[in-house]
Fold this sequence. Notes:
Keywords: ATP-binding, Nucleotide-binding. Pfam families: AAA_33. InterPro entries: P-loop_NTPase. This is ATP-binding protein. The protein contains seven helices and five strands, in the order βαβααβαβααβα. It has one domain: 3-Layer(aba) Sandwich (Rossmann fold). The longest helix has 20 residues, at 62-81. Residues 1-13 have low confidence and may be disordered. It is an alpha/beta fold. 46% of the residues lie in helices and 13% in strands. The protein starts with 17 loop residues before the first strand and ends with a helix. A five-stranded parallel β-sheet has the order 2-3-1-4-5, with helices on both faces.
Amino acid sequence: MTGPAGGVDRPALGGQVLVAFAGLPGVGKSTLAVRVGAALRAPVLPVDPVERALGRYGLTGDVPGMAAYGAVAGLAEVQLGLGLSVVVDAVNPVASARGLWHDLAERAGVPLRVVEVHCGDEAEHRRRVEARPADEHVTWEQTLVRRAEYEPLIGPRLVVDTAVAVDPLPGILAYLG
Length: 177
């Protein structure tokens, strides 16, 4: 959907929406989340920088990970309260993390749309992980560990394979609308 000057039109949504991206590091979640946020004119709230900031203050392990999810959920709630749609960019590896978005959508009275992103080409996925900037670098070995711990997503969602040479944005926006 293109608008004037080649921009992307805001989809005709019936109102606000909470969009939660999920998937392993390096699959293309953040790239898609930013594109969806721009199309919706909605804030994009990534969990990774919050986790890194907590780490800089000496908070490491599982607790800061869930704390980062909780902090982003709190920020998302404020934005939803302002009448904005929100795009959450997070790995969302376990049901407890994903439950935050379900609970928030219910409290805010907005629909939740989950977009699960994966890269069906393992060599390409590895290349992407290893090419990430040093300040946000996750090793391929760490990604494999996260994949082994990743709980399958259950429930309504759109699954996007970024290894397919088709722009997923139109399909994502249709799903959101």
